[in-house]
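Colleagues,

For the teaching module next term, I've prepared a clean inverse folding example: a structure given as tokens, and then the sequence designed for it. I'd like students to try predicting residues themselves before seeing the answer, so please don't circulate the second half yet.
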């Protein structure tokens, strides 16, 4: 039945709510005229990229620094580019992870504020950004050295596997986290290039397990005390078991570091770094026992005594390397 529209006439409700657009399939989504597109927030992008996490990539520099090779030829440039490549890889994986876990993150008391979960950053844009960063990181690593590109590819594959499956498998989640740290150190050795000591690799591995177990311990404690949901893998862990892993890995780290520092030829000053290193391990273990450790980068940067011990260790180590060189 025709609808007459004249002065003062009103359209029927259905006619007022629907618009007919020529050439558009009925039922298709049509943007509203004058609708505003939400601008992309620079802060949302930066939060998604997690620049605080880049501190972990200092391990890329550690191998060359431990060997005293940072002052040789173009080693600083190659190592810096390798570190940059791993920063790009890490940020790309974080962005993709946020897209994948957006629904789950909305139920988490802290993660629900992440830009993708909160709706401050479009999922498609975050996915494209993550893919672009991954490709850029792999390309940069391969440009430095083809072998470094393979190490970077292995790191990306391990981290993506962790995001998809390994983080839900008891103990393998700890191994995957530790493996990421070890691959960073290996990348630094490949970029320099320098030969990595077995004891140095053992130090990095045991410290990585310590950090990973401390992270799970803090998450488990928060879920038990706060009555909130957490990772499903936490149901397979106990506080006592995680504390045992922390203590064991810390002991191995101290032992391996002592052997590595004392066994270096023609270097008399480097054993002096043992004391501040032991203090760092003990302080980190103490913080884990108090329930901290869920965000290792914030703990390392935020705890005053740990930061002081770390600075003393770094200063003594740098002086010992300079003297030996």
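(Answer key — instructors only)
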């Amino acid at each position: 039945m025709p609808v007459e529209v004249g002065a003062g006439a009103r359209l029927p409700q259905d006619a007022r709510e629907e618009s007919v657009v020529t050439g558009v399939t009925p039922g298709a989504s049509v943007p509203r005229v004058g609708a505003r597109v939400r601008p992309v927030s620079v802060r949302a992008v930066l939060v998604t990229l997690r620049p605080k996490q880049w501190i972990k990539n200092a391990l890329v520099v550690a191998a060359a620094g431990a060997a005293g090779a940072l002052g040789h030829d173009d080693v600083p440039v190659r190592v810096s580019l390798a570190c940059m490549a791993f920063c790009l890889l890490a940020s790309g994986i974080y962005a993709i992870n946020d897209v994948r876990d957006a629904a789950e993150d909305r139920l988490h008391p802290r993660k629900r504020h992440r830009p993708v979960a909160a709706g401050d950053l479009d999922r498609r844009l975050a996915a494209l950004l993550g893919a672009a960063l991954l490709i850029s990181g792999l390309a940069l690593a391969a440009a430095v050295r083809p072998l470094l590109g393979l190490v970077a590819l292995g790191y990306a594959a391990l981290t993506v596997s962790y995001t998809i499956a390994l983080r839900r498998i008891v103990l393998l989640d700890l191994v995957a986290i530790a493996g990421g740290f070890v691959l960073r150190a290996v990348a630094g050795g490949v970029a320099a290039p320098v030969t990595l000591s077995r004891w140095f690799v053992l130090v990095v591995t045991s410290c990585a397990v310590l950090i990973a177990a401390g992270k799970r311990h803090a998450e488990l404690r928060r879920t038990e005390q706060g009555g909130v949901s957490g990772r499903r893998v936490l149901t397979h862990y106990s506080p006592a078991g995680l504390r045992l892993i922390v203590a064991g890995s810390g002991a191995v780290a101290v032992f391996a570091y002592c052997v590595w520092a004392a066994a270096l030829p023609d270097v008399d000053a480097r054993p002096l770094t043992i004391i501040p290193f032991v203090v760092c391990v003990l302080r980190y273990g103490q913080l884990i026992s108090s329930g901290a450790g869920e965000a290792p980068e914030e703990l390392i940067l935020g705890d005053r005594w740990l930061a002081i011990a770390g600075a003393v260790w770094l200063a003594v180590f740098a002086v010992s390397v300079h003297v030996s060189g």
